[in-house]
Amino acid sequence: MKKNTFLKLGFGVLLSASIVSCENETSNEQELNSQLIPEKIISLDKAIAEYNNFYHTRIAPFEGKANTNQTRAVWFDMKSLESHLNKINVVANQNNIAVTGISISLL
Questions:
Q1: Are 102 and 61 in contact (CB under 8 A)?
Q2: Alpha-carbon dihedral of residues 85, 86, 88, 93, nearest 10 degrees?
Q3: Residue 11 domain-assigned?
Q4: What domain of life does the native source organism fall in (predicted)?
Q5: Which domain holds residue 1?
């Protein structure tokens, strides 16, 4: 009889200790999650919209048009490349266009 009571008491203490431990883990996880999330993160909806926009404007137009057999490595000497970039800047300035980057697709 004493052995049964002792086992029940021990099991009760063990169970209550594990419940308290689980509660502490949950609060620790919440604290950790709140520390890991950046302040200026975009929403999931905006991220999906941005990805879809990127896919439809940058990737989809070239799908099926180029494969590894059709792509080629191209070399430009620095003088002609700089000359071409300067020409782009001149034309952009004449038309009040800010050049923020250049995309080059070789098909």
A1: no
A2: 140
A3: yes
A4: Bacteria
A5: 1-38
